[in-house]
Write a structure and sequence with these properties.
Largest sheet of chain B: 4 strands, parallel
Strand content of chain A: 5-15%
Oligomer: heterodimer
Strand content of chain B: 5-15%
Structural class of chain B: alpha/beta
Shape of chain A: globular
Helix content of chain A: 40-55%
Order of helices and strands of chain A: HHHEEHEHEHEHEHEHEEEHEHHHHHH
Strand order of the largest sheet of chain B: 1-6-2-5
Distance between the termini of chain B: 87 Å
Number of strands of chain A: 11
Helix content of chain B: 55-70%
Number of helices of chain A: 16
Radius of gyration of chain B: 37 Å
Largest interface: A-B, 21 and 18 residues
Distance between the termini of chain A: 53 Å
Chain lengths: 366, 800
């Protein structure tokens, strides 16, 4: 497995380290049939993602929402098809892909980050040019891509934001996914993927049309659309869980925000996202930017950091207001108007418990 | 093989519409070789079994019980090929066993229902069936989920919510997305002998333990109803034994809930008790049914959401190829997608099957359930999007099957009504497959003596319109010609088997053609949201001769009109009303109540009229049509509507320069026609509109509007043409070409004779002899002229 496991002070632990105990307990207690190349049975993977218990170890839920989606993702991996998770920004695509890789393969670190500058070499292989010049093409001079390493080890490679890559880079995946081989003509060799190899890719719905995926590539993926959290309770649960996890890992000296603050933030986000109030009685304008669950999480941790560093250590309405202002009014003057309209039309009428936040937001937005 | 307690009768509990149930029942009957097969169903319908099992009967079919007196109550028992009850009947027929329904007769089912005052008997006539007390069950304990099985969701709307929460819990504990999936996974796929029957028997006992106690206290009506039914069924079983059938050669097929109660015959109903049963006189009939109807029935438990899927399942079970069901389902979805132009490869179908199977494996299932298959279709064939495959899924799940019955078997009240009406209206000879034309004269026939005969054609027309409204394609109206008299109608009449089905289906809407049509109209009125719709519904009610619905339509239209400011829409509705008011007498319907509404609509259109006239050329067309309607109404109903206001509004529009010029011109023409504008005023207006410097769009556009009406009045005014001529000669070349567009359009509606007259008028102005002018106009184009016209053709019309 990866050599980072020895480091204690890494900034963000990968899922397989973060949930090491849970994974070990699941492997220990596993009674199901384990597919070739997997470290646990599909049922255990499901349990790791949606939560449960393994022996005495409590397994925390990693993906909160419709478990059917997780089942479909796992079933895809069982049939050694590549998986493509699609969704709005902040619908836990990468989070789910990381945890799936950690549970199935024990290593979520074989990642290709898709950008406009991603080249075919990053998908296949490149060369250590000093060695190439000195020795000619040798196996030692070969620099393998994460995908190639996953093939070699029978593991899972992750491809983030695949739709941002140029189409020729995307196309490089086609032969890998259908033939499960990479040929290295320079060495006169061919690398065949070992059992267990698969790819989990993610793509953003907002990026659609930037680099439309070819039908040929689409056919090689099982596509699963991740929805935004279905209801207020689910979203609150997600935010609360992630905020406390992040707070713990950053060692923030602030209490995790009270349910009330969470409720307010999530309510505001949901209303702005859906374009109407939660009781569906009033229409609300949506800002131009994305207001995802992930934004709510970062807003709250931000507020916690503000409170810890410059405040009393408790999150105040001013801290929240600052965070909300930054999350909702991104770049646009229009967003400022949208936010103002929301404040006056909706939030102002919400009664005493919202008054403090309203006043703080009002001041911040003026 | 476990026999039932007491008498040793074999009890087989089933879920209705369950392929596995059908499979196991047939299997069990083969083993038990009974001499009597007793089935849960209305005992007075036993005679229908012969018809149900007739070789020419093709399911889905349904048994319908209805009362003849008001209020009409109905109860429905649908059967598909995969209904266990249906398979049991077929077995009995094939093996010559005695077969009977043993539940309360339909007369008592409906009688008891009246007493219970339950809301269950909706007009749709859902099957009234076992109704475990679900709130109590839900409260009782979560054990229900461990080993027991619930038969179906409640038919009673009242406890739907609590019921669903219980089923949700069962599904959740077993890790399934919903109860149907839970049921399918655990019961429909298991074909090992006796598994189905034993589990359901155990379930039944468990279920009753959970429900009975609280049912006795909190839902006594329900409890009593079930107790009565079971006592009755026990009595029927006892009677069968008394008739000489050996108990261990009797098989009872009943709903799972009753399975454990029917073993003990000690509770059988006595003769005295049977006499006490309340009863309403009912009639029973069979009717063809459709999968679409079956799938849309709510509250009738599961197994019916996807009738075609379950039929496929049943077929594969019989052939012993159940494992091929996923292939068939997914391949048929892919085939349908391809037929619709979305290509999906066989490789993708293969992957979809593998995907569905591994989803099933996650739940330790034997085979994919419908939910697994749907998700597989969505993920692989729909590429993640349900909308791509939704239509194909519906085809693979619901299907389009319509059942059929032998001729004459089906006798619903609406069919009787149909026959009665055919006779009354002397239309029996048209009940053939040959299309015939029928012309109706709605006027009174004065040569005959009876009133009925005098208005025969009018009554026929009412009835035909009602049939059309119900979507019964026995009659088809021929398109009306413009010149056709209001009292004449032409129809094509043709009978077909589809008509028969349509008639039977309409029975669910009402017991006679009239009540069904009234129901449909009422429903449409309740959901109608535009003025257009409402006015069409009033017309429909008028054509069908349904005064009551006409009044309802009137108030619906009134409400809608208050909110509308769309003049074109209001004018169109007013036109329809005006027609009804004028020709109402033809159908001998008093249309006077419509007059106030007509006045109101007219007033409203007038008020918003000027505002709406400030529009672009595109919007001016419907407005011009609306103006014509309004003007027509104003002259037809001058005493009834506010004619003066209309004239004032026209004058305002005619005078103002900021409205659409075409509409202003039209208003001017109307005023001229009505004599509201003197010759001098007209001349002044023309010279003002066509004065030099006015852009071509405004000047020529106005003229176009003016020329829309009373052309002879225009042609007789020499001064007008002179003014037009002068105006045109002031235009610059480019402007002239633009003006041509409008003038050309204005004159395009003129007849050749009128055009010649225009040419002669202009010729006169230019000092050309009329004969000479006509010659020039009739002559072929000269080369020079042709070239100039070509140039105009090159003109850039982009602005228009």
């Amino acid at each position: 497995m990866s050599n980072v496991s020895t480091m204690q002070d890494i900034m963000r632990k990968p899922a397989e380290l973060l949930y090491q105990d849970e994974l070990q307990a699941l492997i220990r207690e596993d009674q199901g049939k384990i597919p070739a190349g997997w470290q646990m049975s599909p049922q255990s993977v499901l349990k790791f993602i949606v939560g449960g218990t393994a022996g005495k170890q409590v397994i925390t839920p990693k993906y909160i929402g419709n478990p059917r989606i997780v089942e479909m993702a796992i079933a895809t991996m069982v049939t050694d098809r590549a998986l493509l998770l699609i969704g709005e920004p902040g619908t836990a695509k990468s989070w789910l892909s990381e945890n799936l890789a950690a549970a199935i393969y024990g290593n979520s670190g074989l990642v290709v980050q898709g950008t406009a500058g991603t080249t075919e070499e990053q998908v296949r292989y490149s060369w250590n040019y000093a060695m190439l010049l000195a020795q000619g093409p040798t196996p030692e001079a070969l620099v393998k891509s994460p995908i190639m390493r996953a093939m070699e080890e029978g593991g899972i490679a992750r491809f983030e934001e695949i739709s941002r890559c140029a189409s020729e880079v995307q196309d490089a995946l086609i032969s890998i996914l259908s033939e499960k081989t990479i040929s290295i003509p320079e060495l006169g060799k061919e690398l065949n993927a070992r059992k267990g190899f698969s790819v989990i890719a993610t793509a953003n719905t907002r990026d659609r049309g930037v680099n439309e995926m070819s039908t040929a590539l689409k056919r090689r993926f099982n596509m699963i659309v991740l929805p935004a959290p279905a209801d207020l309770e689910t979203e609150m649960e997600i935010v609360k869980k992630r905020v406390s996890e992040i707070a713990a890992s950053y060692d923030l000296q602030t209490a995790v925000p009270a349910d009330e603050a969470l409720l307010k933030v999530v309510t505001i986000f949901r209303e702005l996202r859906s374009g109407m109030t939660l009781d569906k009685k009033e229409k609300v304008k949506s800002p131009a930017g994305v207001i995802s669950t992930a934004e709510a999480i970062s807003l709250l941790t931000n507020s916690m950091a503000l409170a810890a560093s410059f405040g009393s250590g408790d999150i105040t309405d001013e801290d929240l207001a600052a965070g909300l202002q930054g999350a909702i009014v991104k770049d646009d003057d229009k967003d400022r108007l949208v936010w103002k309209e929301y404040l006056d039309n909706v939030m102002k009428k919400r009664g005493a418990s919202w008054r403090g936040l309203y006043a703080a937001c009002k001041e911040m937005n003026s | 093989m476990k026999t039932a307690r007491g008498a040793g009768v074999h009890i087989f509990g089933v879920r209705h519409l369950s392929p596995a149930g059908a499979y196991h029942v047939a299997d069990f009957l083969d083993k038990a070789q009974p001499t009597a097969v007793l089935i849960e169903g209305p005992s007075d319908a036993t005679a229908e079994i012969a018809h149900l099992t007739n070789v020419s009967t093709k399911p889905p079919v349904a048994m319908l019980a209805f009362t003849e007196e008001l209020p009409v109550r109905t109860a429905l028992w649908p059967f598909a090929a995969y209904s266990p009850e249906y398979q049991a009947m077929l077995w009995a027929r094939k093996h010559g066993a005695y077969c009977a329904f043993i539940d309360l007769p339909s007369s008592s089912v409906i009688g008891l229902e009246d007493i219970r005052g339950s809301a269950a008997a909706s007009p749709a006539g859902l099957r009234e069936d076992e109704n475990p007390d679900l709130p109590a069950l839900a409260k009782a304990t979560g054990q229900a989920a461990e080993g027991t099985v619930v038969e179906r969701s409640g038919a009673d709307e009242g406890n739907e919510t609590t019921a669903s929460s219980l089923y949700e819990r069962i599904a959740k504990i077993s890790g399934e997305p919903d109860f149907d999936t839970y049921w399918e996974r655990n019961f429909e796929h298991n074909l090992s002998p006796d598994a189905y029957r034993q589990t359901i028997l155990a379930y039944s006992e468990r279920m009753r333990e959970l429900t009975e106690e609280s049912e006795q206290t909190s839902r006594r009506g329900e409890y009593a109803y079930n107790a009565i039914r079971e006592a009755y069924m026990c009595r029927q079983i006892a009677d069968a034994i008394a008739a000489g059938h050996s108990p261990d050669r009797i098989v009872v097929v009943c709903g799972a809930y009753h399975a454990s109660a029917l073993g003990d015959l000690a509770n059988a109903m006595s003769d005295e008790e049977m006499k006490l049963l309340p009863s309403r006189k009912t009639k029973l009939t069979l009717m063809p049914y459709s999968y679409l109807k079956l799938s849309s029935l709510t509250g009738y438990g599961a197994g019916n959401v996807a009738p075609y899927y379950f039929e496929m399942m049943w077929e594969h079970m019989r052939r012993g190829t159940l494992q091929e069901l996923p292939h068939r389902y997914l391949a048929s979805v892919a085939a349908d997608l391809r037929a619709a132009g979305t290509h999906r490869s066989t490789a993708e179908v293969i992957e979809a099957v593998r995907f569905a199977e591994s989803l099933a494996a996650l739940h330790d299932g034997l085979a994919p359930t419908l939910t697994d298959l749907r998700d597989a279709a969505k993920t692989l064939l729909g590429r993640g999007e349900l909308s791509v495959v939704a239509e194909s899924l519906a085809k693979a799940e619901v299907g389009t099957a319509i059942g059929s019955l032998a001729e004459g078997v089906s006798q619903t009240p609406i069919q009787e009504d149909m026959n009665r009406q055919l006779k009354r209206l002397k239309l029996e000879k048209y009940k053939t497959a040959v299309a015939a034309d029928l012309s109706l004269d709605l006027r009174e026939n004065r040569r005959v003596s009876s009133k009925e005969a005098a208005f025969l054609d009018l009554n026929r027309s009412f009835w035909f319109h009602r049939l059309s409204l119900l979507g019964i394609h026995f009659v088809k109206a021929k398109a009306r010609g413009e010149e056709q008299a209001a009292w004449a109608e032409h129809w094509i009449v043709q009978w077909s088997p589809e008509v028969e089905i349509e008639v039977v289906e309409s029975n669910l809407l009402g017991e006679t053609v009239e009540t069904a049509a009234a129901f449909v109209l009422q429903q449409r009125l309740e959901s109608c949201s535009t003025i257009k719709e409402a006015s069409e519904l009033i017309t429909a009610a008028y054509e069908c001769g349904m005064i009551h619905q006409m009044e309802a339509g009137r108030s619906a239209l009134q409400k809608l009109a208050v909110q509308s400011q769309n003049v074109a829409e209001i004018a169109e509705a007013a036109r329809k009303l005006s027609q009804l008011v004028r020709f109402g007498g033809v159908r001998r319907i008093d249309t006077a109540p419509l007059v106030p509404l007509l006045q109101q609509l007219f007033l409203r259109a007038c008020l918003y009229f000027y505002e709406a006239s400030q529009c672009n050329d595109e919007a001016a067309k419907p407005m011009a049509a609306a103006m014509n309607e309004m003007n027509h109404i104003a002259s037809e109903h001058s005493g009834e509507v506010d004619d003066e206001l209309w004239v004032r509004e026209l004058a305002r529009l005619s005078d103002r320069d900021d409205a659409n010029p075409l509409l202003s011109g039209l208003a001017c023409a109307m005023l001229l026609e009505r004599g509201e504008l003197s010759a001098e005023q007209c001349a002044a207006e023309v010279s003002r509109r066509l004065s030099p410097g006015i852009p071509a769009e405004l000047g020529a556009g106005w003229f176009e509007g003016l020329a829309l009406r009373n052309r002879y009045a225009l042609l007789s005014r020499m001064s007008l043409w002179q003014q037009l001529d002068e105006y045109i000669s002031t235009l610059e070349d480019e402007e002239f070409k633009r003006a041509l567009v409008f003038l050309r359009r204005a004159f395009s509606a003129f007849s050749p004779k009128e055009k010649t007259m225009v040419a002669e008028l202009l010729g006169e102005l230019w000092g050309v002899e009329p004969e000479q002018a006509a010659e020039i106009v009739m002559d072929d184009l000269k080369e020079e002229e042709a070239r100039m016209l070509d140039e105009i053709n090159d003109f850039d019309f982009e602005d228009f």
